[in-house]
Fold this sequence. Notes:
Strand content: 15-25%
Radius of gyration: 20 Å
Largest sheet: 8 strands, mixed
Shape: globular
Helix content: 25-40%
Strand order of the largest sheet: 8-9-10-7-11-12-13-14
Distance between the termini: 41 Å
Structural class: alpha/beta
Order of helices and strands: EHEHEHEHEHEHHEHEEEEEEEHH
Number of strands: 14
Amino acid sequence: MTEQRVRWGVLATGGIAAAFTAELVDLPDAEVVAVASRTEASAKAFAERFGIERAYGGWDALANDADIDVVYVATPHAAHRAAAGLCLEAGRNVLVEKAFTLNSREAAELVALAGERGGFLMEAMWMYCNPLVRRLKALVDDGAIGEVRTVQADFGLAGPFPASHRLRDPAQGGGALLDLGVYPVSFAHLLLGEPADVKASAVLSPEGADLQTAALFSWDSGALAALHCSIVGGTGTSASVTGSLGRIDIPDGFFHPDRFVLHRDGRDPEEFVLDPADGPRNTLRHEASEVMRALRAGETESPLVPLDGTLAVMRTLDAVRERIGVRYPQEG
């Protein structure tokens, strides 16, 4: 790592890998030096698209490339444990797409491995790095709405997705929960931490993936969260946090908001709007910048996306899956 630039490797060549790489190549302090895929042809095509110097037809070569400061793992969930583990073993720092792994056991293994190797590890929960989400959390933490009573959030896509699609394939961690539900769950965790009790219900596909899931969490404080995710119905992706003294509403796109409204008892509503300098709302650059800031500071995890928080989210996702009867083939 030079003082000016952080050198990235990208592991996988799908849609999210392309979106993140497009952000990286526009950042003056980032340099994408290598990409890897299971096939050399896919890696080369991706490298040509983004002007990347090295393309590897396998993960090992990328993991062992000493010129890489940090690897971005963008495979489907089912491969996160193997891909991130390979990179950590080789001494690379790693950013792993969410959901972090298939389950909390795999997540704990990666966290332990990063600790043994002294490497940086972070879940790519870009919502936590969003400037407006950070502002919202600061307001809640400062007591702007009093004691949190309820959290509501939803994320659904209309589909329909065929049975052959990754989102319907249990072997790839398919289903609404890990792809979409991780956002409402993580939003509730951001504000209230790990719940004391989890209740959930779902509609499952014939192959055993959750098509839509509803969850109700409770905390010892008396707070509740009502959350929903779906791959069979497009929702408003809205969220609301209600407290003893007011509430905050995110009207749409709660995981990458461009505005939210603070309602406080006895006061006019206050609208908080995304600063154009921080936009567009769907940018991934705040996440990339946080990784690079942490690496330059010599940190092994980000305070914005702490590993304890990631592990807690994975435990909660496990609990939801237990309630709705979803088990992945790899889990036996």
